[in-house]
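Is this the right way to post structure tokens for a design question? Let me know if I should format differently. Anyway, here goes:
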């Protein structure tokens, strides 16, 4: 039987709402540390504060004194016999908060009129989702992981084990990753890297996916600047397609793509450690990929220097998105990382940022060909998008 909370047994003896572990220095920025402070929420969920290197916050954090209902049971995962893919049936998510008024922001620091998820003022905060798509149970002793089950069957189901976390970029109620100052962006990147390492070590986790959705047009239900991290008990379908491409092309696929793009006319910016470009076969009207210049499988494997540059380059790319039109551009930004157990020497960490916005007042909707058959049809030439983004990037430093 799957067991609860995996590597978090250290929280079992901790009173809910109190410190749950040792304070840890993660990285030094300009001689000052980014600090990790583990706590727990009133129902036992993990809460971690990440303090900026230049933080003005005191070290102490308030306890979570709410009275909370028990967490919903772990969701059920069902296999689609037509594709072999696993679908998580997480019905408890249907009741999650939807575009609440500003005074009831569940990601803002708690206030007398706002019993939010975060008890104290913070720089960056990460906590377990109350109604997750995967988890909070993990693989139990003696249970076979999903990767060992290659058969197709009718009515096959499993517990939807894993972990889903919320990453709050700022205590402010409006904004996005692109609006963060460099110091705060650097803290978020450090949190992503730390959580990637921790989550990958949990029993049954096969792939870790940090991402941000921005804008109601892509399904955002909270305007607060935040992202999420999904820890899957399987390798995602998109990554399985990538593995097939690498098996066909060879292990230099990412290196060759990067060299080709750096020599072409779809580059947005090339730094010392990262390059941002519009891909040759972009699916979306606005699509940018950001690749590191060396082979690294995930964020946890990046160096402090690589994270420093990313904290400057990535927000500038997002500001270029917003500079294309008079209103903010909706987007999905996802960190594609190598699976935990395979292809870590040939799948390279990649950030993919996509937007359905094809004009100032028009969106690309996934209609028949895209939704039913997965056959995308591009509305804008990638070279035109790259030209427009380069001009916007230069104008919005």
């Amino acid at each position: 039987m799957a067991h609860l909370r995996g590597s978090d047994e250290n929280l079992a003896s901790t009173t809910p709402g109190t410190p749950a572990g040792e304070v840890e220095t993660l990285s030094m920025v300009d001689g000052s540390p980014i600090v990790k402070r583990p706590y727990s929420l009133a129902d036992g969920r993990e809460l971690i504060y990440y303090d900026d290197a230049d933080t003005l916050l005191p070290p102490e954090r308030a306890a979570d004194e709410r009275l909370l209902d028990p967490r919903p049971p772990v969701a059920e995962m069902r296999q689609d016999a037509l594709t072999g893919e696993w679908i998580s049936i997480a019905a408890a998510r249907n009741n999650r908060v939807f575009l609440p008024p500003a005074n009831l922001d569940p990601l803002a620091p708690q206030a007398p009129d706002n019993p939010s998820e975060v008890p104290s003022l913070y720089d960056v905060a990460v906590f377990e989702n109350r109604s997750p798509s995967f988890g909070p149970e993990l693989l139990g002793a003696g249970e076979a992981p999903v990767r060992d089950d290659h058969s197709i069957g009718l009515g096959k189901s499993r517990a939807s084990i894993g972990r889903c976390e919320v990453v709050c970029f700022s205590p402010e109620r409006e904004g996005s990753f692109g609006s963060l100052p460099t110091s705060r962006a650097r803290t978020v990147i450090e949190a992503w890297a730390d959580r990637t390492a921790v989550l990958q070590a949990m029993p049954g986790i096969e792939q870790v996916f940090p991402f941000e959705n921005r804008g109601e047009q892509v399904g955002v239900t909270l305007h607060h600047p935040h992202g999420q991290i999904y820890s899957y008990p399987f390798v995602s379908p998109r990554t399985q397609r990538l593995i097939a491409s690498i098996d066909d092309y060879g292990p230099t696929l990412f290196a060759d793509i990067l060299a080709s793009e750096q020599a072409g006319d779809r580059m947005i910016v090339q730094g010392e450690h990262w390059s941002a470009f519009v891909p040759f076969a972009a699916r979306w009207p606005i699509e940018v990929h950001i690749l590191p210049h060396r082979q690294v499988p995930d964020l946890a494997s990046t160096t402090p220097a690589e994270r420093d540059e990313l904290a400057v380059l990535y927000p500038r790319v997002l500001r270029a998105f917003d500079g294309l039109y008079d209103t903010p551009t909706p987007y999905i930004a996802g960190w594609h990382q190598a699976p935990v157990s395979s292809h870590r020497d040939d799948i390279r960490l990649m950030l993919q940022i996509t937007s359905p916005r094809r004009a100032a007042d028009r969106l690309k909707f996934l209609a028949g060909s895209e939704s039913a058959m997965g056959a995308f049809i591009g509305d804008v030439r990638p070279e035109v998008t790259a030209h427009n983004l380069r001009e916007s990037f230069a104008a919005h430093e």
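Format looks fine. Someone answered above. Worth noting: Confidence is low (pLDDT under 50) at residues 1-13. The chain has six helices and 19 strands.
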